[in-house]
Amino acid sequence: MSFIVFSDDWGGHPSSCQHLFRVIARSHPTLWVNTVGMRPPRLRLGDLWKAVLTESRMHGAANRRERPERGAAPAVCSPLMTPFQRPAWLAERSTRSVVRRVARELSRLGLEDPCIVTTVPNVHEAVRRIPARKVVYYCVDDFSEWPGLDRERILAMEARLLESVDGVVATSRALFERFEGRFPTRLLTHGVDYELFAREGLAEHPSLRAIPKPRVGYYGLIDARTDAELLAAVARASSEVSFVLTGPSEGIPEALRALRNVRFTGPVPYDELPAVVAGWQACLLPYRLNDLTAKINPLKLKEYLATGKPVIAAPLPEALSLLPHLRVAATAAEWTELIRDAVRGAWAPDRRALEGLLRPHGWEAKAAELLRACEGLGRELTMERA
Known about the structure:
The chain has 2 domains: 3-191 and 362-376, Glycogen Phosphorylase B (Rossmann fold), CATH 3.40.50.2000; 194-358, Rossmann fold (3-Layer(aba) Sandwich). A 7-stranded parallel sheet has the order 3-2-1-4-5-6-7, with helices on both faces. The protein has a 6-stranded parallel sheet with strand order 10-9-8-11-12-13, with helices on both faces. By secondary structure, it is of the alpha/beta class. The chain starts with a strand and ends in a 10-residue tail after the last helix. Helix 1 crosses helix 15 and helix 8 crosses helix 13 (332-343). It is 37% helix and 13% strand.
């Protein structure tokens, strides 16, 4: 079986789909198609700059073959695309661009009758026009709940995509339940690179040198999902602790940025994240509780646990499923108490138990599950859990 994958830009901070296809592409020819975001750029400097970079990348890639990073196997292409669905002629032109580029790449690679896997619904029209053995929607988020996205527009795109799919693979139980009974659906929770994150004796990352100890931290995109108000309250109540936020940030209130014990390091390469965590006394997941976060399965949860550091998370369904290996906190007082206990070493996870929990969830095993799902999913099958 060969694959066409529509997803985030290959070679950036790896998503679960990238982790899976780093494994799958070793034995199954794969064409990875970089796609544009679903939020049309607004008249803001940051959005306009992103648009310029995206268009530049796509124009530059239009007439050359891209090479994936880190020696990965997929062939990668970046067709000219637009995030705009209106006017209709512009959306149609974007779809034709995608279909032409994919057809050209399939011919060059000698791939026939591929399985299409998409993590995004905005390629629904292209998916309908590309001959494929099977189409699978790998659902990693409820995009209709994302801040800044047009809910009705996203739902309409997803509904159009679902007319073409043979099945859905969902990364959380809540997402599974969203499709169960309507489509052949499999549950595939995230994996973890246990060997990368479980390394002991790592030197602290250089980004931490100027940050006083003790430290607790969060890594990943810092955006509207992050409960900045809660985090600010906890940081104010824990002035003796440094709160380290590692990753790109969007729209963080100045009240949080102004706190002296809250430090933003910016993003670091994925392979260096264990060294960042090595300098923390605890890992934090301070997400808001809403319809979006109730459905997500944060990739970092199992990565955090693999480090052996204490993990404190908002009571998200996927965090609750990992009890008693972590702690959950709902209020600022609960967060403050658990952080203080973690910093003074009052509690820590059982490393042996964590190894037993996490080793079976390596990306090799998860990739094998996805392959089985892609082989088995079809309109003729009854719904069942993976």
